[in-house]
Amino acid sequence: MRALLCSVSETSRHRGAIINEPRVNERIRVPKVRLVGPSGEQVGVVRVEDALRLAQEANLDLVEVAPNAAPPVAKLMDYGKYKYEAAMKARDARRNQANTQLKEIQLRLKIDDHDYDTKRGHAQRFLNGGDKVKVRIQFRGREQSRPEMGLKLLQRFAEDVADLGTVESSPRQDGRTMTMVIAPLRKKSEAKSDQRRRREAEREARRTAKRERGGGQRES
Prior knowledge:
Layout: H1 2-15, E1 32-36, E2 42-47, H2 48-57, E3 61-66, E4 73-77, H3 79-99, E5 102-107, H4 113-128, E6 132-138, H5 147-160, E7 165-174, E8 177-184, H6 188-219
Parallel strand pairs: 1-4, 5-6
Antiparallel strand pairs: 1-2, 3-4, 6-8, 7-8
């Protein structure tokens, strides 16, 4: 493991990517470290030579996690596994951020019940799919002097979709427009997984129904 890490470090240094990586094993050039065990237990201040020996005995790596502390803090861990898990978390975060879209719904201050229900249904579908929703009210004429009515309408809208989303950006007015952003309670990836499972269940139900119809026709 130690030889593999050295090889990775050398490659990263050549590419200029080593800057943000912590010092590992023999690259830690301090006399003492405050050592943390693999489960987070505090071992205490030890000589770096002793910390490296403990790492080698446990088949782990010594990783400097707080270089500016006095003395620096180092932890025993599987650094290769740690880097892999961190890369996967960063990739998932980027994927969720890239997939999440901002949908927009526009309301009128004097909206009728049918139109309101339709807009609410659109918002519920967007939120259930993992997308954010911007709700916009466009004031007309003298309506601009009644911002409290717009605030009341947006609050009602947020309450009606509260089982699927939460207010991320509170209502704010800019001239004749008042907007509010509602964020979904679950991630885009979770919504897509549910959609795939539903589609697979529907396909299986259709196949089962087709087999049953075919069997009934043969018996008759």
